[in-house]
Amino acid sequence: MENGAVYRPTTEVHPGTARDTRSSLAACCFLGRLKWPRRTLKILQVLLSLLAFVCEEVVSQCTLCGGLYFFEFVSCSAFLLSLLMLVVYFTPVYDRVDAVKVKLSDFYITVAIACLFLMASIIFVSTHDKTSAEVAAIVFGFLASFMFLGDFFIMLYEKRQESQLTKPETAVGTAALTEPLNA
């Protein structure tokens, strides 16, 4: 056996691996999976929940700390979960998992975070000490809640539109179904 036949596939450059003109980071990101309103909402969710978390972390003392701690947990969880969904949508991870499961997970995560963030913001309003950092955290918390709620309603609308497009026609009579085929 000649050595060229053994070593050729591993030593020659594969023609498909030539570098593209795009950078490697841009090549792995695909923004087209989400339409611009949802893409904007997803980015705003990440930014506003991060800002709410950072502003809450700046608070140095509190008299009723239960609302602050709950807000801290919810804002941090919202930031991490919304960042995770953003990464899944914008990277090749989306191609490796079932798209239906991603959309369903995004739907349930969004509605849960929207409800919890709104509740945490309301509780934090009733227990805060009126410092500027707490007020800023509350404002960002409510804004993030509204972004999550807006995303939820857009997903609900899209889901309803899809179900109307795939709804089977009900015009087929039941008498036609009960008649024999060769009559």
Automatic annotation (TrEMBL):
Entry keywords, A to Z: Membrane, Transmembrane, Transmembrane helix
Gene that this sequence comes from: CMTM6
GO CC terms: early endosome membrane; plasma membrane; recycling endosome membrane
Keyword Nucleotidyltransferase: no
InterPro entries: Marvel, MARVEL-CKLF_proteins
Protein name: CKLF like MARVEL transmembrane domain containing 6
Tree of life domain: Eukaryota
Biological process according to GO: endocytic recycling; protein transport; regulation of protein stability
Location in the cell: Membrane
Domain MARVEL: 33-160
Record field: transmembrane: 77-95, 107-125, 137-157
